[in-house]
Design a protein that fits this description.
485 residues; mainly alpha; two-stranded antiparallel ribbon
Length: 485
């Protein structure tokens, strides 16, 4: 017997593991010093260059996916975060990949809606209250949109899709586990119940508990679906453990919007999946954890009417007053705070938040900044995300992934009603993965059609050859003999 040589993805995994082992050995041996980092970079650079040029979806975009839950902790100073840098590299690498193969095709319907939205944002700079603020925020939108557009053109196999989902789950579980570790490590120092919220912090950098919670919703949706459709007890238990870690982190964060979105995911699975009995058990377990567990989020739900949603209702009252004055075109992109401050003293504040308030609501935010025109375009973008997945039917192997993706989109819309997230990478990750799911399903469908066509062609050729033979047995034999000669 001849030994099989690892090839393709197997060889790639081996090379990657060896490179990581070498880098780890160098850093452990010499410490995190400049020479050690330079040596490690020298080892990794050929592998990184190969990955950027030939496997950008697996390597660069995969690293981007893995880092997103830790985004705000990875600050690099004035430039932004490490995740931002990786996202820029990923966007360039993906565009180069499709350009080299002549696959630059803008066919995804959400892209055209997004282009119209970006065009309206650019126009809004002309009438913005603060044009400096408008110009400053535009690069953020441009970077997110360009990465999304690049992703929509990428071909992706089923295995690549699964690997990216695995990275989504790994990042979510790791983030949740790290947060829980920090929470119980700080618990002895907590003096009052108001401070009992899970806040992930490293040095001067921290993640807002609401954004921390919202970033876990997509991994929860993915891992819960894996657990529902798995056939082995071990896989179900492992999925349940991962979901339990992330749900616990959401509850400890005290994020009311996160809990509501979590229940929305469960309700959507109960409605759309064929695993209703398992989902019902999941729903009962979640409600039991909420009722019986001593989580800070329950106290926050109890006080929502007394505080006006932590002052949100007062903020929205000012936003509505501001929107009345420029209902069609808004006050310009990036100008919510300027418009808010202009009308703040003219609106009664039962729960005052103070000056320079963020919108805490996607609808109010873009109604004030971009008016009804911008708000309609954003709604069209969300709707087109759902419509782009409609053709993945129940007979498709990606149908369960479609349900998980739709649940994540619904959860994203839900939390956007109480927080500003349209410039956050975890929301755009959901949009990008929806595009990749559409591409993966299309690729699988085309492969099935090609396989069917290739199997039909020989049969047709054989029939055609038979039909071409003379009807007489003697003539048929003579014809075959002449063909053979």
């Amino acid at each position: 017997m001849t030994a099989r040589v690892a090839s393709g993805p197997q060889l790639w995994v081996i090379i990657f593991v060896v490179a990581v082992a070498v880098v780890a050995s160098v850093l452990l041996s010499f410490g995190v010093t400049l020479p050690a980092v330079a040596l490690a970079a020298l080892v990794v650079s050929p592998l990184a260059l190969y990955g950027v040029l030939n496997r950008p979806l697996d390597v660069v975009f995969g690293l981007y996916v893995l880092l997103i839950p830790f985004d705000n902790l990875l600050s690099t100073g004035s430039f932004g975060t490490l995740t931002k840098f990786v996202g820029i590299v990923a966007g360039i690498a993906l565009l180069l990949f499709v350009a080299r193969r002549g696959q630059i095709k803008l066919t995804a319907s959400p892209v055209f809606v997004l282009f119209a939205l970006v065009g309206w944002m650019l126009l809004s700079v002309l009438w913005a209250l603060n044009q400096g603020a408008a110009v400053k925020i535009l690069p953020t939108y441009a970077g997110l949109v360009l990465l999304y557009v690049a992703v929509t053109m990428m071909p992706i196999s089923r295995n690549q899709w699964r690997r990216l989902l695995f990275l989504v789950v790994i990042g979510g579980v790791a983030s949740a586990g790290y947060g829980i570790h920090l929470f119980y490590g700080q618990l002895p120092n907590i003096q009052d119940s108001a401070a009992m919220r899970l806040i992930v912090q490293a040095g001067d950098n921290f993640i807002d508990p609401n954004h921390f919670s919202d970033a876990l919703l997509f991994p929860v949706a993915v891992l819960a679906m894996w657990g529902l459709r798995s056939r082995t007890i071990f896989a179900k238990v492992a999925s349940l453990a991962g979901v339990g870690i992330m749900v616990s982190a959401i509850l400890l964060s005290g994020s009311r919007e996160g809990v509501v979105a979590l229940l929305l995911i469960v309700a959507y699975y109960l409605w759309r999946t064929r695993y209703r009995l398992q989902v019902a058990v999941m729903l009962i377990a979640t409600l039991a954890a909420l009722i019986l567990g001593r989580f800070p989020v329950m106290e926050r739900f109890a006080s929502v009417l007394q505080t006006g949603g932590s002052g949100r209702t007062s903020i929205w009252a000012v936003a509505i007053e501001a929107a009345k004055h420029r209902l069609l075109q808004g006050f310009g992109i990036g100008n919510f705070v300027d418009a808010f401050n202009q009308f703040y003293l003219g609106v009664h504040q039962p729960y005052p938040y103070g000056w320079d308030s963020p919108a805490h609501n996607l609808v109010m935010h873009y109604l004030v900044e971009l008016g009804l025109v911008g708000l309609v375009l954003i709604a069209g973008f969300f709707i087109s995300q759902f419509r782009s997945l409609k053709y993945i039917g129940k007979d498709s192997p990606f149908y369960d992934d479609r349900i998980a993706m739709e649940a994540a989109l619904l959860a994203t819309i839900s939390v956007s009603l109480t927080i500003d997230l349209f410039t956050y990478k975890y929301a755009w990750l959901v949009f990008a993965m929806a595009a990749l799911l559409r591409n993966a399903a299309a690729t699988a469908q085309q492969a099935a059609i090609r396989a069917t066509s290739s199997s039909i062609t020989p049969a047709r050729s054989a029939r055609s050859a038979s039909f071409a033979l003379p009807a007489s047995p003697i003539a048929r034999s003579a014809t075959r003999s002449s063909c053979a000669s």
